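Fold this complex.
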Amino acid sequence: MKEKPLKVSIRGPVRDILRFATHISDRHRIFRDSSPERQEEKYILRLRKALHPEAQFLTVESISHENDSTITYSLAPNPYRNKNNTIAPFRAGQYLSVDVEMENGQVISRPYSISSTPKESRGKNAYDITVKTSPGAFIPGIMKRTWKIGTELTVSDPWGQFFHNPLRDPAHLLCIAGGSGITPFRSIIGDRLRDKSNYTAVLIQGAANREELIFSEYFMNMANEYPERFRWIPVLSDDTPETDKEIPGVFRGLIDAEILSEATDSRETGVFICGPEALHRFIDTELEKTEFKAVRLRREDYGIQGHPEGRSPVNITVKTAGSTFLLPADRDETVLTALERAGLEPPSRCRTGNCGWCRGSLLEGKIRYDREPGGLRAADRTNGFFHPCSAKPETDLIIEIPGKPGIHH
Amino acid sequence: MTEESRSGSAPEAIVIGSGLGGLCAGYELAVKGVRVLILERHNMPGGFATSFIRGRFEFEPSLHELSATAAYEYLRDNTFDINFRKVPEAYRLILTEKNVDFRAPFGMEEFRKSVIRAVPGSDKPVNDFMKICEESYQAFSYLGGTSSPSPGVLFRQYGNFLRTGAAVTDEVADAVKLPQKARDLIYPYWCYLGTSTDKVSFSLWASMVYSYLNFGAYIPDKKSHSLSVAFVREIRKAGGQIRCNAEVEKLLTHNRQIDGVTLRSGETIRCRHVISNISPHHVYGNLIDSSEVPARASRMVNARTPGVSFFVVYLGLDADRESLGLTDYSYFIAPHMDTVRLAEGFGNRHNPEPMQATVCLNAADESASPPGTTILSISAATTPEAWKDVNPWNYHRAKEEFAELLIRQFEKATGTEIRSHIEEIETASPVTFSRYTAAWNGTVYGYEATPWDGIIPRVLADKKESYFKGLHFCGGNASRTYGFGSSMLSGKTAAEKAVSEMGI
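Structure:
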């Protein structure tokens, strides 16, 4: 028996076909009935511009000395350049990529953690960044020499993954800082204690000596103000017994297993570490020796240093924004450093291989990574993409990188 | 430093935007020997076809699966060298208020049997309904494969397609008397169109559902980023150029003919053929000088509704999926399947019972994350309006709240515990999508596919709605409508139009 063919009917056989035949003219009737006025993008564009401006034009609003070698710069919107005059919101622990103009006119970007809390920054409409000026520190020296009140700066929107997320991280944190790695913790600790409840933290702050113990008064006050919720453990590596009187409970030596055991308990604990790479490696070894098991561990790396130690020249051919350039480079510097020195103003943010902002194509030649960039995507590895911020040239290279994004000034 | 050269001769065609549609257009032009320049606003090509890394996880931002139809065949047929993994089952549907926990298998026979088993006595309406869905799919295949469709063939072989071509999904379900319980099981995939079944073009919905259920689906190794990387590689091989961080600020026209583009940097590039992977809203509203834009184009833009956006929670979990009890690849979770009410909820970030579409990549690809870990991504449709009350300083908190709501809903519906296993979490809102793709208002699909703005009217009206010579569109707003496969292949269509215009 032959099955009767299926013949669907919605409004009747003729009307269904007619409806199909006329639905294009329906379309044009609907078009004709619409307004010819230009539409704005509502709601979302407002948030995007507030949260992720393509660049922030700021000025140095104030300069304060934390100690002889550490300076906090307060950066507020540049009234002559910014349209909305409001800084972009951030999460405690995030950083800004700051364009620093060298005395020869070359522009280099550097990531600096925001040391003010979101609430402080929102209140005064300014970010604080805190920079340590040690003799070997090249960029901080330029900042110290050239930044005055009113100096105009271009910085990125806030970036980075070094922040507490209540859905991921335990309410109790162990924060470990080495040297100027303390800067994001001023924001994180202040935010947790002052602006949120139910959060607790222990901060181990490693520094060379009393003088280098940045924000010591701030943390001492916090420990007094919130004795139940916060403990501050300063650890000084240089032997200076007189600080005992000034800072009760100071430890001497390195942040070793003994101090880590002292700082930890059976609470569910998330660990946040910020400091030079040697600190990360040392803490990893020392944590192994303790009973303590971190529930979550987050790190903020410091930028890969790109300054040539020896002279081992290579050439890099760079294709960017429709042009090709030939520039000299060194095997001991990162590709990004060579691009910056040449004045190309290549895109970059984290300078540790993580964020991928500088991603480019390696068309010819060989590069090496001292440390494998954590942010390199799987498909990129096998298709010749690389992160110039963490790659050093082994041979002459031919590369292609994105141009400098066009920014409305 | 010495400047060696400016790039050689002027491009013969420019592609604005390098989502999959733009990349496919650029590739098709390059392999035909056209000097093509692709301009991308972001620092890397790909649009939604990308990935991002948090800790030891590389996340898939957008692709849930690619149906094993034309787009999948295209990517396999060409020299893209992409490894695909088969999605194991169609979906698991949990309707919390209705006590439904249904596993939909792939294969039309198996699917129909499962629905009929779950809804006894529904044989005829279910079989009829799925048959009409199949006919829609086949009619589109016929239309897609011929340049001059024969009305005779359409009437004889695809009568049901013609009769339902201007209908919405509910009308066809009503016509075959499909019981609500069967609709509950067959409808869930509607959320990937984001338009409720009383509004969505039946033929588009039906064709999508049929092809997914019947042919199965795949995901690429190394996330959808591998698709854009493969396109970039092949475009360069064929001599095409791609520039990133190169936002087009103006589309130059002269006497209704495209004449070039001006970049944000101020550089002007002359060119008489442009394929736009960005929306007509942007092109006619922002890129072309308003005095040059005909009122017809503005009315066309204003008549159409930008589709929904999504809020997505990406979770990197610190245990393998077996121990977490994540048995399935694709979960649809909702209180019920009343799509009108569910769609109304898109406008509310605090809606306690939204519909979520959740994917556990590891169920199709064990290598999706490191051994002993699992990736889970939870998506819920949302509208731009749902974010209008958010103060920028409270934005991160708003995202955390939405994320927590969806995670709890998932845990409750599936009886799993995942919160204590969250090693990495990221969320994406319309703001995120706007930031990375500049899609209009952060919407992830093109215009809503209502019957008057479905595939058929878009294709048939294409010439009439061409307001500038030398300008063609691709991507989710173009004639094939949205989704990875359609957006991508619309690039091929746009390239073909451009090539025929060039007289090559």
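DSSP finds eleven helices and 19 strands in chain A.
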